[in-house]
Amino acid sequence: MTTTALIGTKNKKGQVYTDPNEIFFEAPRDASFLTGSEIIKEAIKRSSCEMSVAYPITPQSEAASLIGELFAEGYVDIYSRGASEFDVMSICAGGSFGGSRCFTTTAGPGTLRAMENFPMWAGSRLPIQVCITCRGINSPLSIQPDTLELYYMLETGCLIWHAETAQDLFDFIMKGFVVAEQPDVHLPIAVACDGFFVTHTKDVVMMTPDDMCLPRYDPYRSPVPCMDMECPPVRMMRDPFVMKNNYISYATHASWQQEVRAAIERSRKHTEVLLDGLIEIENGDAEVLIVSSGTAVSQGRETITLMKDEGFDVGLVKIKTLRPFPTEEIKAATRNAKRIFVPEFNVAGWLAREVKAVVEDNQRVVAGPHVGGGMTMPPEVVMERILRTLKADKEELSHV
Amino acid sequence: MKPYRVLPGPEEFLPPSAASMGIRLPDPDQGHIEGRIVPEEEAMERAARVFLSANVPTIFPGPLVLWSWNEKAAKKATAIQYLYDAIRESVSKRAKPMLIPMADYRPKYPKINPEVEINPNHPNLTIWHNKIDACMFVGVHCHQANLALKIIRGGTDCFTIAMCAQAGHEDANLTFRDATPEKIMNFAGWIKKLKGTV
Fold first, then answer.
1. pTM of the prediction?
2. Which of A201, A373, B42, B71 measures 20 to 30 Å from B10, CA to CA?
3. Cα separations (Å) of A252 from A167, B35, B56, B123?
4. Residues in chain B within 8 Å Cβ distance of A236
């Protein structure tokens, strides 16, 4: 029976397999006051997730543990602990090759330890979802939020969505499965949130009914042969063609990489509908814009209010998806801005580089402010950077 | 800059994927011709004209239809045979229609036999050897089809058609989506309808 044919029937927990559009856009939602970790559990409970693998690393450990409760309750079929993050991601690959909808969580050094697996997932077209609860990666040790790890994820071939709030996290996890598993996409997805700021704070989240769940994953719609021992195409698993030492092997490898990136591009069409666009704009006509992702967006919203009190008009562009990157959307949204500020929770400023790469006249872009290692980013700090820059602009003009 | 068009090659050493150049896949009941979204019937007519005017119109059936792994696959295989017969009956005398399977996706080592098979890792060899100027992929897993279609566009002048069971292929010069046995039979119907007019 196809997964579409299952719609309207019940799973073993009594949840009704429901069309995703009905779940997301028509079903009533109830308010709950939960932590981000609890929200991850609630989203997975509704996602017909067959398999999850855990390994402890702060700040995702609690979410991974709560998914263990879902296993005990019968909502998740397979749940195990890996020997390391590398092991976790490898086990997920096996599960996904075998046709399961797989979910896992990681953070900071765990993300980097697992890193080899992410391009392997993408190259193998495995639609695994990893929730990255961002934290510092470098020595000296920090368990605090820092988004530098996302920089390393950008070219892995994974879809990457960055949640601002617990509400985003809930929606992105469920919608992420739907987009990632489209046959023309069929890629891993990293749903990221900023550790502690989102995972360990409570927020009001409007949740879909817990007696409705997503249709199951259908591995037979995969763009590569699925591992079905009863089905002949399984005998056509990927051969290491690059070992065959001739020119065409290299060309195939290059073409393969292009195809993974093409699949990221194809996800736009599906994502635009489910996320209501890849970006969100607030007060977009302002001459000063803040462009950011994750909780830096929330600090940007606070900054807008502070700046308004000071008599300044500031707008905001929230980036929801880092891959695919909303190139044309950001270009259009920032076209009339005189200054574009990109506050980030990392010292590298990778998002500012991304923004600079796509906007016209990119000298308008100010990379910062930046904080790192778990520092908070008070809106006053963003405001101070904006005011200092505008003052310098004015002084420069008066010298012309 | 002019919008990118998915034209027959040879395009370049490593052509871009069409998706990266802004080409989007068609919605249900649509196809695309060289990157332009069109009603499906318009794509049917164009594809039929391409096949009828080609010297070596060729069907490349892949594992999803070569193996009788479910009822639908068997029906599609029958429809593909019907299509091939329709092409043979409808093309001019100088044309040499072919049906060459893509039985699996492993690179052939030390060398492919291009007379009897095609492979997604070096599809250009089969195209060149048989002087194929129009081809249709059907029953090939989407990832492998896109690899092959792009390599063909990069190095040959063959016009590529994709009869895809999923969402279609931007890397083909012409694509259909949601392929069913009925859709393949409809295409055969277009071939017969346009016989002698091209």
1. 0.95
2. B42
3. 41, 23, 25, 10
4. 63, 104-106
